[in-house]
Amino acid sequence: MFEAKVTVRLKKGISDPEGVNTLKALHLLGFETVKNAKTIRTFDLLIDRKNKSDVKKDVEQMCQRLLTNPVIHTYEIEIEEK
Amino acid sequence: MFEAKVTVRLKKGISDPEGVNTLKALHLLGFETVKNAKTIRTFDLLIDRKNKSDVKKDVEQMCQRLLTNPVIHTYEIEIEEK
Questions:
Q1: What kind and span of H or E run contains A58?
Q2: Which domain holds residue B62?
Q3: Are A30 and A37 in contact (CB under 8 A)?
Q4: For position A72, which CATH number holds?
Q5: Is B28 touching A (CB cutoff 8 A)?
Q6: B4 in helix, strand or coil?
Q7: Is the CB of residue B52 less than 8 Å away from at least one CB of chain A?
Q8: Alpha-carbon gap, residue B79 to B55, rounded angstroms
Q9: Which pTM value belongs to this model?
Q10: Contacts of A36 in chain B (CB under 8 A)
Q11: Chain mean pLDDT for chain B
């Protein structure tokens, strides 16, 4: 069993409305010292395979087909045996 | 300047509809070896303060007032000087 963490970030220059709104709300609450807010999404997957390199290949495919949009996202994959 | 990362997870037993739907979609795409999918949200904040312990206090307050819902979320804070 492997745990794969896929961290999905927006590429530079791509707007992050959730981050913008979080920043506005923090300012409204008086947290003026916050200069920037970004959001990052992580998928934590539990995968039942024997071989770490197969897991890596599968997760790469999952990123390309479902979890990320290559136009706007960058991603990182971390795999750990459980 | 400090970078604060707030990692927000759902508490055990709290349903994660996005995770459930991700798992279903992965199965539909043929990734049957995925046994569980969870989603994690991270806020990446840039904070202009001099003192790390002030940053920590502020970010704790932000978590309690805006970033997390204590009924359903747990959170972790990591702070790094920039």
A1: helix A52-62
A2: 2-81
A3: no
A4: 3.30.1280.10
A5: no
A6: strand
A7: no
A8: 8
A9: 0.90
A10: 45-46
A11: 97
